[in-house]
Amino acid sequence: MTLETSEPPCAFHGDFCIFAVATIGLVARTAAKALLPKSASWQDKFTFVWLVCSVDTLIQLVNERSWLYLSTFGRTVNASEGPFAELWKEYTLADFRWGVADPTIVSLELLTVLGAGPLCCYILYQLVRNDPARHYWIIVVSTAELYGGFITFGPEWLTGCVNLDTSNALYFWVYLIVRVDVVRVWVIIPLGLMYDSYSHIAGSLRLAQSNALASKRR
Known about the structure:
By secondary structure, the protein is mainly α. The protein is built from eight helices and no strands.
């Protein structure tokens, strides 16, 4: 079962979303070249670009915060006015929950905006300083991304997508899939980052353990 809407698709909003993603990607790549150490590995460069481009940094520090403001203390997107309200009203054509301050979404966004966003900025700072402690926090934020993505869309899968409009190509492929591509992006990339950071942490601990045992044998 899908939620159908009588609103016609707005091609401008779809083009704007694609343009915004491409622009942020270019900014992230330029920043990585300018700020990261010259010795930075391709994994660190990729992590930097991902954290800047993903909703956990730029988008959540601006756009997601506006939604959280419009969806707390009795406010809803559907009852609000202004440029950010209009932007989110467009998205509610694809996912009805974002227009009525769904409590599950609000709870997730509180954790994301107040926790994950600032944490990603801290990881970016650690990447610039080449601080190995970043690997612990990368695992933390990647776990949060996996959990948040599932809790956002898991209930819809279990109930037949009653709040999603999957009948319209623009709403489905641009507003839903591009925004949170749970299968290709928000699962595979966090898992890859977790594996890379786990390898660094486990390797360091094993080396430290080996050195400690060698010292005791002397």
